[in-house]
Write a structure and sequence with these properties.
The protein contains 14 helices and 16 strands. It is α+β, with helices and mostly antiparallel strands and 446 residues long. The chain folds into two domains: 168 residues, Chloramphenicol Acetyltransferase (2-Layer Sandwich), CATH 3.30.559.10; 221 residues, 2-Layer Sandwich (Chloramphenicol Acetyltransferase), CATH 3.30.559.
């Protein structure tokens, strides 16, 4: 793979620059709960393989102002982070929350890490956490599948600091000149987007982020987050009886929970934001995706999913047009100064109180086998790494749902923060339990 282009794709450049401008960013987290001891030899093979696939990289910045950054090879931390002392099984989710606080950095490293917490009862919880600037949901899922299956993937990236400063300046300057046509097209797309999104720009302006500062550790908060395990057969039967699909049942639950959390507009509707993968065979982008926003009336979703299903289908059909509007300006990412990036955060979230949704659907069985054997439960989450109550309140709170199906079980993760509170896991557990009960679903809530 000599001569491979290590330049970040525009969307990945935007993700990284946003992280630096804000001083924080989302993390992708997988976790596996074993009700028996894990095979540490198997986990170390998994860890070794992870560093030789899509996760095997870090970002090296261009020395040129407004130059595009590059990928460099990085095989990961020296070893798995194993907790010194066991903890009770009941504290599994608390430990997963704590792991989100451990620093992750796509440039300085570690860009990802694998950690294990043994249980006093004899089992263990394993977690893999990575910067979203390194991988989106499908990328980390693919990396896990390949690593668990013993596959490696040489991306062909150079070692860190392989280019001299002079070489980097010359190469990146030439690339900047070649990108001028991309900038011209992106400016036109940005003008169109601004014109079509005038109302959202106006309503989002007040949510602009201040310049990042040294965070007072005592002010950091953990967004309440829980996981519900639902029998896959029960999930299937319920979606069919409501005239829906797995994705529309997931959307219906998100809509109902959004209504319960007060995330509705003046008409009582909720706005669900879905990532839509564009990942192709051999795709090495960290974020190979676009997105769609779906407006749902949550009133009758527990009686029928036909309207939800139709709305999802309609938005997917119209995706090519909305995709251009959404991704057309991304070539401007290297040119955006940090101050403007912070002002754009509110617009990226959209007007009102959107609900983040990520349904990975049926997972390859290998994704549930980090030590080579099936875990009893899998957890899929996306959470902000280091955030305060003030930031969450300014952004209008958050509600994010993620799901995956494997080993006969649907794992549904929910994280939520109400602006001004109250916020707690107990309150969130009551909300999730009530909504699932309305759908006729029985779940074990972690």
């Amino acid at each position: 793979m000599a001569g491979v282009d290590s330049t970040l794709a525009y969307i990945d450049q935007g993700s990284f620059l946003g992280l630096r401008a804000l001083g924080r960013g989302p993390l992708a987290q997988y976790a596996w709960i074993y009700e028996r001891p894990v095979d540490f030899d198997g986990l170390r093979r998994f860890h070794h393989n992870l560093g030789r696939g899509l996760l095997g990289r870090r970002i090296e910045r261009s020395p040129l102002p407004f130059g595009r950054d590059h990928w460099v090879a990085w095989t990961g931390p020296a070893d798995i982070d194993i907790a010194a002392a066991p903890r009770p099984r009941a504290e599994a989710l608390d430990w997963l929350d704590e792991q989100i606080r451990v620093p992750i950095d796509p440039e300085g490293g570690p860009s990802w890490r694998l950690a294990v917490q043994p249980f006093t009862e004899g089992g263990a919880v394993v977690t893999l956490i990575a910067s979203h600037s390194i991988c989106d949901g499908l990328a980390i899922t693919l990396a896990i599948k390949q690593a668990a299956g013993g596959e490696t993937w040489d991306l062909g990236y150079p070692q860190p600091h392989a280019r001299t400063r002079g070489q980097a300046l010359r190469e990146d300057a030439a690339a900047l000149v070649r990108a001028v046509p991309d900038f011209a097209k992106a400016i036109g797309a940005a003008v169109t987007l601004a014109r079509n999104s005038r109302d959202e720009l106006t309503s989002s302006a007040g949510r602009s982020a201040p310049a990042p500062a040294e965070i007072d550790e005592s002010r950091l908060v953990t967004v309440p987050a829980l996981v519900a395990y639902i029998d896959e057969d029960q999930w299937q039967q319920r979606m069919e009886s409501l005239g829906g699909t797995s994705n529309s049942l997931f959307a219906g639950i998100a809509a109902k929970l959004g209504q319960e959390q007060g995330r509705v507009d003046d008409t009582g509707r909720v706005r669900l934001q879905f990532p839509v993968s564009e990942r192709t065979e051999g795709d090495t982008r960290a974020n190979a995706l676009t997105g769609m926003t779906v407006s749902i009336d949550p009133v009758n979703v527990t009686q029928t999913l036909r309207d939800v299903r139709a709305e999802l289908k309609k938005n997917l059909a119209a995706l090519s047009e909305s995709r251009f509007e959404l991704l057309g300006p991304v070539a401007l990412a290297p040119l955006i100064p940090p101050g403007l990036a912070r002002r754009l955060e509110g617009m990226a979230l959209g007007a009102g109180a959107p609900i983040g949704c990520s349904n990975l659907g049926k997972l390859d069985p290998a994704v549930n086998r980090p030590d080579g054997t099936d875990a009893d439960h899998i957890v899929v989450r996306q959470l902000e790494s280091r955030i305060t109550a003030d930031i969450l309140d300014r952004l209008g709170g958050t509600l994010f749902l993620a799901a995956g199906q494997v080993n006969g079980e649907v794992s549904l993760s929910v994280s939520a923060w109400r602006p001004g509170g109250p916020n707690s896991k107990d309150l969130l557990k009551a909300s999730i339990g009530e909504v699932l009960d309305e759908f006729g679903l029985t779940a074990t809530i972690e």
